[in-house]
């Protein structure tokens, strides 16, 4: 176990993700200064249901994009891994910001090719319906669930469920179940919209033979 500074937020960050943040609270301005002077990283555990979640994502400060006269900052960060909180401190020793004793989590990132094929077909339909085909075109062939997780219409709680999954195959199962649930609803909505658009137009119909 090791000490890690914490920055709880009401969002889920996935490994590899780049995150831009506007820093305004004094405690987190202190955290950024410590990242710059000491080279430390910090963790973002999602703040859900009025409490700090036991799982979080470790972040590395990439750059301070802008310093304001007020002391506020715009920063760029990148997620580097997952951790589990073993002991939470509302304030890290001698600091304004929170901290914790954490354990690093090792991820099984093996992709199930069969599940990947099924998910890709569902994603293609989803992005076609939503007019977001570009998202599919930009995906690498060996994409991971983390790469698409923010573009699936998941709630924050559902995204946290993906953090809890210990293998890529488990994450694939969760996402496939979600897509198979929402796609029929979206497709039916599109059909309904089309029927509404056609209502009142002249129709060229072929009468039935009887």
Automatic annotation (TrEMBL):
Name of the protein: LON peptidase substrate-binding domain-containing protein
Domain of life: Bacteria
Occurrences of domain Lon N-terminal (ranges): 3-181
SMART domains linked to this entry: LON
InterPro entries (UniProt xref): Lon_prtase_N (IPR003111), Lon_prtase_N_sf (IPR046336), PUA-like_sf (IPR015947)
Pfam families documented for this protein: LON_substr_bdg (PF02190)
Organism: Hymenobacter tibetensis
């Amino acid at each position: 176990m090791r000490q890690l500074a914490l920055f709880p937020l009401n969002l889920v960050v996935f490994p590899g993700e780049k995150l831009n943040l506007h820093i305004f609270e004094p405690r987190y301005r202190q955290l950024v200064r410590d990242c710059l002077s000491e080279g430390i990283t910090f963790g973002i555990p999602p703040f859900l249901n009025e409490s700090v979640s036991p799982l979080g994502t470790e972040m590395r400060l990439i750059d301070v994009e802008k310093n304001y006269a007020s002391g506020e900052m715009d920063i760029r960060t990148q997620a580097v891994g997952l951790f589990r909180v073993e002991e939470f401190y509302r304030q890290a020793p001698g600091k304004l910001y929170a901290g914790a004793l954490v354990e690093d989590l090792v991820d099984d990132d093996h992709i199930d090719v069969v599940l990947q094929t099924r998910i890709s077909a569902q994603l293609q339909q989803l992005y076609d319906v939503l007019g977001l085909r570009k998202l599919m075109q930009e995906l690498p062939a060996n994409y991971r669930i983390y790469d698409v997780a923010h573009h699936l219409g998941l709630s924050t709680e559902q995204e946290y469920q993906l953090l809890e999954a210990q293998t890529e195959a488990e994450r694939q199962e969760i996402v496939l179940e979600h897509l198979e649930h929402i796609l029929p609803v979206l497709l039916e909505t599109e059909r309904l919209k089309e029927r509404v658009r056609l209502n009142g137009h002249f129709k060229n119909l072929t009468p039935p033979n009887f």
